[in-house]
Each structure stands twice: as C-alpha cells, then as structure tokens.
Design goal:
single chain, mainly alpha
Length: about 100
C-alpha cells in the first residue's frame, strides 16, 4: 500500500489556499538553495508557478503541486539538503549551518 494519497490530498489542500505555499515552505526548509557547507554544491530547484511560466511557458496546475507534494516533478534536491532539512526536527533545535569535517 502507498501513503501517497495522503500527500496528494494535503498538496491539493495547500494548492487551494495558495499555489506558492508548498514551494515556499520547501525553500524555508532549505530545499532549492545552498546549504552553506564548505563544499562545491548545486542549489537544486524547487519549482513554482513563476518558474514554470518562465521556463515552460505554461501555467501552474493543481497536479504540479500534487507531484511536488510527493517529491516528484521538476524538484531537484541534493543529498546535502536533506539532512539540513530534517535537522531541526532531529535535534529539536533551530536550524544552524552545518560544517564539514576534515
């Protein structure tokens, strides 16, 4: 069984409030931007309505938010962004910059 249906429903609910809500929160958790760790990295991509219109010349559809809600579509996340995204929950502390060890 898949729990994707739950994420579909939450994504549709968020899309109904504001199409930018899910992409904005993804960025607040550190996705789509550099982590600040002292390594060469790519910021990745969190697609949103403005990005889709500019890049593809198409409007944002509820299905775009659904796909984003299950981690599919055009989203590009780096392996370094994921621990940074989850760190505040894992440590019960505010997010702070991570550092690499030598």
């Amino acid at each position: 069984m898949s729990c994707d249906i739950t994420f579909y429903q939450v994504a549709l609910l968020l899309n109904g409030i504001d199409q930018n809500l899910l992409p904005d929160y993804a960025r607040r958790f550190g996705l789509g931007k550099l982590t600040g760790i002292e390594v060469e990295e790519n910021p990745g991509l969190v697609p949103d309505p403005a990005w889709k219109l500019q890049t593809k010349g198409e409007g944002w559809a509820p299905g775009d938010t659904v796909n984003l809600g299950i981690g599919q579509s055009e989203i590009q996340v780096t392996p370094l962004q994921l621990p940074c995204c989850w760190r505040p929950w894992a440590t019960a502390a505010p997010s702070t910059a991570l550092r690499s060890w030598k």
